[in-house]
Design brief:
49% of the residues lie in helices and 19% in strands. With 145 residues, it is α+β, with helices and mostly antiparallel strands.
Amino acid sequence: MSIANYTTKVDPFKTLGDIQKLLVRNGALNVSIDFDSGEASALSFVVEINQVFVPFRLTSNWQGVLKAMEKDREVRPGLCTEAQARRVSWRIEYDWVRAQMAKIEAGKAELAEVFLPYAVTETGETFYQRFQKIGVAGLLKAGSD
């Protein structure tokens, strides 16, 4: 099975707009895009959860997508470019956000439940990045204090 969306022609800014619409429709109070050398590198948003404003950040990681495309025998070498990897990366992100919103809208999950790994901590790293540093034992110990 090939990497999802590897043939997409959808511009990253169109996809980012689609993601923004989903987030706002489901309670995001603020949505912004981070840029690196003129290219979208992350999408950040804020949601109020239990009277607390919680920031989240979704990143492009187009480099990982490009590596996966280069390894995928079904992806023509001509498609293995930075520009295409950026399009594919954001389209995959859109599909994931859309699936998570479907779960939320169906009452199967809450926003915080599905987006928790992407919550931004006071240090600026995501919850998942913090988890990577302290590990499961550190997380469990922190919860027992």
